[in-house]
Amino acid sequence: MPGRKLQLGCPKVAALIDEKHRAEKPGWRKQRLLAIKLAAHGKHTGTEIGDLCSLSRASVFALVKAVREGGLEAISERNPGGRPEGWRKGVSPKVMKQFETKLAAHEFVTLQDAVRWLEQKHGIKTSYNRVWYWAKKLGGVLKVPRPSHSKKIPRGSIIPRRVER
Question: Which residues of 114-150 are buried (b: 16+ CB within 10 A; e: fewer)?
């Protein structure tokens, strides 16, 4: 069953797209322009355009939506990706400064104390792993070492051999 042909629905863009595509150097911009050019001509489905341009069908529809809403300039920009607020997403700079200060002063015996402090003092519910990630990024270390087995042989000690009789 053949799909519906994809129509761009922007006559202004359709008139400009051929010359812009011709003038563009090979790369991701030219690939996007080709997808929009094929959508502007309206002879292919979204899947066919994706196959011709080495894009996913979803990417083709996302490009068409971007052009419809923001014009041809909308596809010329790359999305930087990642978190827009950095690795401390959801926490105000004031709270992070206090966290850094307390971490540097070794006020947290364990990171579970830090999780409790964030929740009780500032109402921020976050996981232990997230706080551990922040502490490691800030160069924090635990005051209490990780537990060790009581019968563990200390490193560097000489282990007596068993003498067989």
Answer: bbebbeeeeebeeeeebbbebbeeeebeeeeeeeeee
